[in-house]
């Protein structure tokens, strides 16, 4: 657990540094990951008759920015790793904000959807309610947020150079409802496997 501003800064800085030092290999290793199930989960709760403004929170090298743009939407990326932001901008799929998750500066009610795929679990538990509230306020009323996190038993700490929180469904549900979201659906990934072989918890939420 973190218990001070310096601990939060250390968790953030260490995680960003680890991703930065592995940026090229991370891009190569995740380039072909199929997360269409997650993209579909967000989009089915949003209007289908127009282009949508989507914030890809933790966009990394930009794989999912391209996917949203290919579907006719207007994605904006956000990442705290300068190397990832540069890669994502190079896709030409949309603007990319270079922002630390713990120091967000987002426009209010600017997005129809937020896509947080494998990103929010890096926010320390102490800071998560504030970050979720900022993402809620960045959504337009009626907008939706998708999240996918590696699940666990609510343990928090360092793993191979990166800080994370491994939420279970009751804790994650309580955090999201506490931040003012309404639940829409949740499921486990990868699809079609026994639960013990599904390490990812995915969920979709509405800003009322």
UniProtKB/TrEMBL annotation:
GO terms for molecular function: S-adenosylmethionine-dependent methyltransferase activity. It comes from the Bacteria. The keyword Methyltransferase applies. GO terms for biological process: methylation. Keywords: Methyltransferase, Transferase. Residues 55-146 form the Methyltransferase type domain. The keyword Ribonucleoprotein does not apply. This is SAM-dependent methyltransferase.
